[in-house]
Every structure is written in structure tokens, then in C-alpha cells.
Description:
two-stranded antiparallel ribbon, 2 strands, globular, mainly alpha, 2 domains, 10 helices
Amino acid sequence: MGALETDGEHSGVSDDRLAFTTHATPLNYVAISSLAAASRVLRKFDDKMAAECLETAVRVWNEEHKQPPSLFKSFNTTGGDLRDEETKAAVELLIATNGGTVYRERLRELVPGIGERFGSVGWIAVRAIPFMNADFKNSMAAAAQSYKSTLDEELSKNPYGVPIATGTWGGSHQVAALAVRMYLLNRWFPEIIGSEYTLRGLDYVLGRHPTSNVSYVSTVGTKSKLIAYGNNRADYSFIPGGIIPGVVIVQPDFPELKDDWPFLWFENEYVVDTVTSFILTAGAANALAK
Length: 290
């Protein structure tokens, strides 16, 4: 085509106005989970949107189960573990449909895998208990007991009793995420999972950690992180409520958290899903305290 020619889909000039799409089944399950959950939240606020969310989630679920899964990995852009993402999608659809038979039956089939990977997906699966039979709940209880033993051994490796990251990124997200997961397990199995996991997680991000006693959450706590790396990163300032990754373990065993230098993003960058995890952790700790 000539430089000014177009047929509505193609033109004679290549430019960057291109959209690349792909079909990745785990990522579709992530979308199903999100839409099914959104449908519940939107009811009585925007019923039309709620219905559209649920209809789309159901349609995509049905489409995915009519064909073999499409799998490939590209960093963190194509979804997580297929089995975990399907489990999450089944649980959210089960709750959104108030016990839909299709999703209940699929969850029963997924029980062995849930037990094997309870640390990553058990906290989601237990939310299905009100819609499942006694065998499902008993399986979840047994898996929780086994998981607790493994987790306690891992957490005993440091004096804070939380999963401190030892890689190239601070671990506040892992800590807050575990605190939330253990709260949900505690709700169903308080005789197995105590409240201390959630409370230790809150303590850790608010100052009980190596290197200093500064709160990772800007403006939360008497001494908090006030030089951080968000869209304010060149200003040597902070965003209220933002939470940083925190202490990094410089191998082999040196903990570091720079107080006055925002550009080490692996210690000082605000990330939205970490903020979400902190909000849930704070809410969970408040519920436990009551």
C-alpha cells in the first residue's frame, strides 16, 4: 500500500499503534476470578454491570472447558500455575452463583491438587466450604494441619516468624499476603491455625523487622518511611498509605534498607497490590483483636 492508503485494518505505514493479543488459559482464569468477584460486589450498586461481569466469567469458563488449555510462559504476563488459577476461578464462580453445580463438581475433582499446593491456594479453597459437603471440609482441615507443620518449620528460620525474602526484592508483600491467607484459614480452622500469623505479619510491616523499626507504610506509625519510590520518586518525598518492599537480604546475610535514597526500588518502591495486602492485613488484625 501507499503511505496514505488504508483498508480499515492495514495501512501503508508501520507505526506503534498496534495491539498484540494472545490466548493464555491461566490468564483467562485470572479474568474469570476477577469478574466473578466483581459481580458480587457490584450487585445492588450497578446490577447491569454485575450481570455483565458474571455472564462474561461464565462464558469464558465454558469456552476454556471445551478445549485443551493454552499454555506458555512470558515472565509474569501470562498468568500463574494453571491448577491454582482454575481453582480460584471455580471458587469465585461457586460463590457468585450461590453454589453452582458445575463449579462444585469441578472443585471436588481439584481437591487432591489443592492439598498438594495448599500454601498457595488453600486460603482460596476454604471459602468454598459453605457450598461443599463434609468430605471437602475434612480434606481442607487435613491439608491445613499438614501445611501448618511445614510452614512453622520454614518460619522458624528467623526470629520474626514471617517469610522474609532472601532474593533481590524486599518481602513486605509476601509477609502481608501470608497474614491475610492465615486469617482466612483461621476463620475456618481456628483450632489448627492461630491468630499469631496474622498479627506477626502486621507487626513486621509496621516496624518489627531487621535494620530499623521504621514502618514500611508511609504515614502509618510513629516513625514511617517518608522517602520512597512512587510517581513522586524524584521528589524525595512520600505518598500517604504507600507501602515499600522493605528490607533486602544482601547475600549471604546482610540486611539493608536505605532510609534516604528512594531509587533502590527493590527496597523503596510503592506497589499497588502490596498496599491492598496491607489493608486486608490491617482489617484482619482488627477483626482478630475484637
